[in-house]
Amino acid sequence: MTKIVLSTLNARYAHASLGLRYLRANLGKWRESSLIREFVTGQKTEEIVERILESQPRILGIGVYIWNVEETTRLVAQLKVVAPELIIVLGGPEVSFEIEEQRICALADYVITGWGDVSFASLVRQLMSGEAPPTRVIAGVQAPLPAIASPYSEYTEEDVDKRHLYVEASRGCPFKCEFCLSALDKTAWPFPLETFLADLESLHARGARQFKFVDRTFNLKVDTSLAILEFFLAKIAAAPEDPPFVHFELIPDHLPERLKEAVSRFPAGTIQFEIGIQSFDPVVQARVSRRQKNEVAAANIAWLREHSKAHLHVDLIAGLPGEDMSGFADGFNRLVQLAPHEIQFGILKRLRGAPIARHTREFGLRFNPDPPYNILSTAAIDFATMQRLSRFSRYWDIVANSGRYPRTLPLLLEGNPFQHFLGFSDWLYARTGQTHALAQERLVHLLHEYLCKVRELDATGIGDALISDYRGTGGRSRLRFEVGATARVTPRKRDAGSTPVRQARHLRT
Question: Which of 26, 54, 386, 504 is a good FRET partner for 279, with 20 to 30 A between their CA atoms?
């Protein structure tokens, strides 16, 4: 009989919750009486309630995050109406701070803040033995990492076959960037390397080929980083026709020669680096306690682009305290010149508990009071301008980051990338009133209209570039401006193997 259900709402089906698997792996004798039930945001709440209750659990543990807190609040409220006897325990970053302000915390029976790996198991033992914990809010115990049971055997065959597998070689972060909850960590703690490599071996043997490392600082300890890279290089060498795809978060100004040598040996389509630049302004960096050697970081990105086949996904944040449009534009243009495959243009968020809130009064920071707590305006960027930047971010993702327009994008950006794309973004919103549900064929025609009629660029060159891009990503319809165009590209089928589709598109440029 199932006594414990562990659940959360993931942003997508492909995301398998690592946190739930840690909880189940550490339940001890109660593990066999538990199961994991994962859902996706957007599912009907009543259907989720029905699925959770069908196994008649006594305890429900729910992971609460910024992307699911609103829907999870509705879920908990319904559960308390339909099954008031069910003991609901919350955990996760969204309920680890400002607890007294949150309706979901008032609805639940217990809230575990911080680390929950062993604290949830301890609470379950108390509840199952009939003990009443002295408080509703329980501070999670940070157990030594060797004492935490490995979660990776909790990934099912369906997970291995169809979903991204999240893994971590370490926890915590030694840096103090105030927009991040990791600023509250004292340092980074490594898991025992030999045990972790054995876990990777087991996952790979089961057929796992996509690994996403959630470590904040993968390249902090070079010896450990090299051991993990060599593990995956050995797998690639043994079966080059069936390589893994690995994602790491990289500190941008720490890339010693030993790491460069290892990274340079990865073939295309097998490794991705997420690199947090966030801002190139040293004054802004100092203000938010971000230590970064900008020249070294830029040189490392340039080296990776030129001498490795790694896919580079680089982050910038708009809305940091004191940074105006001009400063952000300078940083954006500098990053475009470094030519990473993707620039993740994010809008600052006030995560619960993050120290960034201390700048609110001095720099006029006004945040959305509801999730995702995005910045609405600052003393340097008013609300209307922040809205323009938000649309820029969305359009940049579907035009530039998508990898669908490798020939057209340089024509659009040439000269001043930020100003030209902002101009396109403003025009596109005025023309369509939409930031979503823009079909590819429609977007191709809109790009053609803007570049030819508004920017008055060479119509033949624009037409040829757009046709090649459209055909190169599988488009088959005849476009309205095709008459007289000469360029043609044979439609490409999706690449086989483990490389994600969007990254695979960038390999063709």
Answer: 504
Q: What is the mean pLDDT of the chain?
A: 95
Per residue in 112-170, pLDDT (tens digit) is 999 999 999 999 999 999 998 999 999 999 999 999 999 999 999 999 999 999 999 99
How remote is the C-alpha of 345 from its chain's centroid? 12
How is the beta sheet containing 271-278 ordered, strand by strand? 165-167, 210-213, 245-250, 271-278, 311-318, 342-347
CATH of the domain at 108: 3.40.50.280
Provide the token pair at 202: 């087991």
Q: Quickly count: other Cβ atoms within 10 Å of residue 108's Cβ.
A: 26
Range of the domain at 334: 164-381
CA-CA distances (angstroms) from residue 225 to 176, 262, 363? 22, 10, 39
> Which residues make Cβ contacts (< 8 Å) with residue 225, sequence separation at least 6?
218, 219, 259
- Residue 291 belongs to domain with CATH number: 3.80.30.20
pLDDT tens, position by position, 189-206: 999 999 999 999 999 999
What is the CB neighbour count within 10 angstroms for residue 435? Answer: 16
**CA–CA separation, 147 and 144 (whole Å):** 5
Q: Are residues 188 and 325 in the same domain?
A: yes
pLDDT attached to residue 493: 53
d(CA 381, CA 378): 5
Check whether residue 178 and residue 131 sit in a common domain.
no
In a domain, 496, yes or no: yes
**335: Cβ–Cβ under 8 A, 6 or more apart, which residues?**
277, 280, 314, 316, 343
- Radius of gyration for the chain, computed over Cα atoms and rounded to the nearest angstrom: 24
Task: Sort 369 into a burial class: Cβ within 10 Å, 0-12 / 13-18 / 19+.
Answer: exposed
Statement: the pTM of the whole predicted model exceeds 0.85:
yes
225 and 335 assigned to the same domain: yes
Q: How many domains does the chain have?
A: 3
